[in-house]
Amino acid sequence: MVLTGHLLTLVIFFPALGALALLLLRKDDELWIRWLTFAVSLVEFLASLALLGKVPIGTAGYSLEEFSRWIASPAINYHLGVDGISLFLVILTTFLTPICVLASWHGVHHRIKEFHVMLLLLEVGVVGVFLSLDLFLFFLFWEVMLIPMAFLIGIWGHDRRIYAAVKFVLYTMAGSILMLVGIIWLYNATGTFDLPAIQKMVQTGALLLPARTEMILFLAFFLAFAIKVPLFPLHTWLPDAHVEAPTAGSIILAGVLLKMGTYGMIRFCLPLFPEASHRAAPWVALLAIIGIIYGALVALVQPNLKKLVAYSSVSHLGFVVLGIFAFTNISLQGAVYQMLAHGISTGALFLLVGMLYDRRHTFEITEYGGLSTPMPKLAAFFLFVALSSLGLPMLNGFVGEYLILLGTYQVHWKWAAWAAAGVILSACYLLWAYQRVFFGEVTHQKNRELPDISSREKWMLVTLAVVTLWMGIGSPFFTRRFAASCGAVLQQMNRNVMHEVSLPTPPAQSGGSATENSVERVATR
Amino acid sequence: MSPVSFIDVHRVLPELCWCGFGVLLMLLQPFLKNRQGLTFIALIGAAAGTLTTSVAAYGSGFNGLVQFDTFSLFFHWLVGLIAFLVILSSDSYLEREGLEPAEFYALILFATAGMGVLASAQELLTAFIGLEMSSISSYVLAGYRRDSIKSSESAMKYFLLGSFATAFFLYGIALVYGATGSTYLSKFAEAEPSGNLLRLGLTLILIGLGFKVAAAPFQIWTPDVYEGAPTPVTALFSAGPKAATFALLLRIFGTSQAATDFWFWAFWILAVLTMFAGNLGALVQSNVKRMLAYSSIAHAGYTLVAFAAVTTMKTNPDGPIPAYGAVLFYLASYSLVSVGAFTIVSELGGKGERHLAQDDYAGLGTRQPFAAAALSLFLLSLLGLPITAGFFGKLYIFNAAIKSNLLWLAVLMAINSVIGAYYYLRLIVVMYMHDYKGPVPAEAQQGLSSTAAMVVTVAAIITVYLGLLPNHVLGLLISQNPMVTSR
Asked: How far away is chain A from the Cα of B324, in angstroms, using its nearest Cα?
């Protein structure tokens, strides 16, 4: 078939087609607009599931590659490919988008058409980021995705939405423009924007950067990603953006956009600048640990429920960064797993918080209390999601955090010890918040009559809960598919380190296969 | 001197065409009272002048005073296209403000002819004539709204400061002549580069031309003049004369003379000052036209970054061609975007240009979706977001800067782009996320006039086209070395 050759292109641009179709609809055809968007995003999800079968298990490298020339000078190619890591991030994106459409079914009242167009365009940008194998193309999607997100926050957000939208764009842009400078520098050094080609040059030693240059380049990329993640102390845009964004915006933002940062670190920082990554690792880990603990502590004292969830993201993403920069196969797999798990559980948390907001139009914890009496079902789902987020075994959050801590412990036990404090703290803030919101007497008269979840809401939550549970008990299904890719990332780093032999303690090369076995054990246990 | 032959006339055919139609318009004015007819003739004039470039053969004319090559071909196309678009967008403006069309169009055509001369000049006095043709027409155009104090102020300011700058330029020419014994660009390319007299002369020339392109610290006039001038004229100022003057600068400082530390630092400092002056100035503007004026200063700064690259790339093995390409591409992308943006500002201004404040743009996204979407596109291009022309413009400049190891300049430019992002986004935010305070005046409800809509559409299409497939244009620009001065 013609389509299979261009499956990735289809997956990227199908939502754009949907957005075009939406433009043809009349403004006031609300129902049509919603259903069409939902259908488009659902088909998109199914299409992305087709990728599952196309990515071979147990081998690294890119599948379904597409390559064509786009611009001759500078040589920019349209180069797409998918591997185990990007595969699930794409599926996560396409999975969350229909949920976003459903989540805004009643929450978005004005400029409905524009809202859904923006949502679909955002999906185009995000999926494009994950599938690009050309640095330039990657950057292009990275930037293009900013505008729909800014509009989502700025038009359909809450009171301080404009401030939050502008802050979001400026922060991201400040990072990414330096990354552009880095990309161009890399282009001038290598003559290509092609990621696999540059990786090969780094690996074979054809591209040997002086230590200082490598560090500067690493920082140019890393800064852009760290802002996106966000890594402490660059996180200050996140609470604003999250709190002011509409529910759908928060879900996508927390679920997928933050992962673009960690994905960038795995895909670009580590393989392209292995030595600089090693040298920077202690500092990055320090920031990640500070982020874990700081994010949790701030979440602990938040009077605003949505802000609490937002800060919990800072904490959870700290785990991911730590897992990446521990450079063991287990911790890296844990990081990827945590990215997916966080996407699901934090997406669900924001969804639930959004449901509360739809009913009471406030995020203040003190405005709630005793909600499990009027709405037992919502309370049950909330508990389930909160438990998954704090890392209860059998649920998705546990697998990621456990793998990260395990992998980190093998090389730096102190890092793992500090980070483990974050696990405890996350239990504190989530359960305490849960207690204040749902347990006890109903403290506000208004809350007595709140309706429990509707069937639309129920199905969204059931879907998320099923995935949460599945990821908790069926983790090999996922890890099997990205283990090889994670191994490849580390191998690329280590080979170069061996080549240079300038680092005192390179993470044991022999650990590679051993850890892979142990991860299988962990995952199948 | 050999007599002027037919071939020589051939070399300045576009200029002749533009001037000829300018004169024709002046002559027709007493007889033809129909504004649209005059617009039509002016459009034909602009187009005809532009199209004659394609029959003009490459080579030098008038004993080497002018030269027609890829470089000047490009600039003739650019200024011709700009003139065409500006004339088209002026039609509704002149009607609204009740201004006489004939002289207006004639002046635009004369100015365009001057720019054409600037782009193909190979000799400083010829360049001077081009500069004056374009400047004097510009002075008059700036004050064309005679009943507006702001417009008169604009013209006066432009005239006084402009004449002052011209004096610098002339004095520079005199010194260069004293140092090299010639005013031909090719001659002083061969002269001793470290001669102080030559250096002083070139410095004065740089100051004079720096004024014309609004490079800091010679940019003080720009916001006032741009704000006071009729908006279509502002569109012209920000695009045409600037591009043509940059062309001359490139011809002069693209020679081997400029490949010294002295000129490198001169352009480095100019670029940094200009970028910061423009962006920081624009940051605090609440008037959209003034904001765009400051932004045009900032963009001159970005272009000067490429100039710094030009002056160092002489020593590069790749040569300076990528940097030339970057300048040309940037000028093309900026000019068209700028014309598009100012056209929208002109249309939304209402009679007497009263609605220029940022608050007047509130809610534009719902009131006038087309204008708002197009203006957003232009602003995003000025900001340098992908799939717009501005992005590739910036990319090529970054590339040129990094190729010549100007990392700091690239980083400063990156920082400036972020500062710029703030005020461009602010306007987009106002258009889409704010509501108009109070009842919307009837004027503000009207959509763009059909001619303005055409201009905007053309500019938007070119912006996206250059943002998706920059290669076709850029390939043309860098396929040949545009610098033929040192024959």
From this structure: 14
Q: What long-range pairs does B456-461 form, CB within 8 A, spacing at least 24?
A: B456/B340, B456/B343, B456/B344, B456/B370, B456/B371, B456/B374, B457/B374, B458/B85, B459/B85, B459/B336, B459/B337, B459/B339, B459/B340, B459/B343, B459/B374, B459/B378, B460/B340, B460/B374, B460/B377, B460/B378
Q: Strand, helix or coil at B121? A: strand
Residue B484 lies in a domain: no
Residue B432 domain-assigned (yes or no): yes
Residue of A111, A139, A184 to mutate, testing the B interface (most B Cβ within 10 Å of its Cβ): A184
ipTM over 0.85: no
User: Tokens standing for B169?
Assistant: 């330029």
Q: What is the pLDDT of residue A516?
A: 43
Pull the structure tokens for residue A196: 């696999």
Cβ count within 10 A of residue A190? 18
Does residue A317 contact residue A263 with C-beta atoms inside 8 Å? no
Per-window interface: B 443-482 vs A, CB < 8 A: 469-471, 474-475, 478
**Domain extent at residue B230:** 6-479
- Convert the pLDDT of each residue in A484-519 to its tens digit: 888 888 888 775 444 443 344 444 444 444 444 444
CA dihedral A397, A400, A402, A405 (to 10 degrees): -130
* Alpha carbon B47 to chain centroid, angstroms: 18
Cα gap B73→B71, rounded to integer Å: 5
Give the number of domains in chain B: 1
SS3 content of chain A, % helix, strand, coil (to 5): 75, 5, 20
Element (H, E) at A77: strand A76-82
Q: How confident is the model at residue B137 (pLDDT cuts 50, 70, 90)?
A: very high
Phi-psi category of B439—alpha, beta or left, where left has phi over 0 and alpha has psi -120 to 50? beta
Q: Is the pLDDT of residue A160 over 80?
A: yes
Residue B255 belongs to some domain of the structure: yes
How many Cβ contacts (< 8 angstroms) between chains A and B?
76
Q: How many CB atoms lie within 10 A of CB B457?
A: 14
Six-digit token string for A95: 């999975």
Alpha helices in B143-260 (DSSP H): 149-180, 185-189, 196-212, 221-228, 231-253
CA distance B312 to B323: 10
Residue A255 DSSP symbol? I
For residue A60, what are the CA distances in angstroms to A48, A78, A86? Answer: 19, 21, 12
Contact A188 B403 (CB under 8 A): yes
Looking at residue A265, the DSSP 8-state letter turns out to be I
Cβ atoms A338, A316 nearer than 8 A: yes
Say how far apart CA B26 and CA B40 lie, in whole Å: 14
Let me know: does B166 contact B133? Beta carbons within 8 Å: no
Sign, CA dihedral B198-B200-B203-B207, equals: negative
Domain residue ranges in chain A: 2-524
A253 or B64: which leads in pLDDT: A253
- Cα angle value B298/B302/B307 (rounded, 5°): 135
Q: Is A173–B429 a contact, with Cβ atoms under 8 angstroms apart? A: no
Distance CA B72, CA B58 (A): 10
Nearest-angstrom CA–CA distance, A206 and A192:
13
DSSP per residue, B141-152: HHT--TT-HHHH
Partners of A76 in the β-ladder = A71
Tell me the pLDDT tens digit for each residue of A408-422.
888 888 888 888 888
Instruction: Report if residue B95 sits inside a domain.
Output: yes
CA dist., res. A368 & res. A362, Å (int): 9
The Cα A195–Cα A133 span in angstroms is: 5
Chain A: closest CA distance from residue B414 (Å):
6
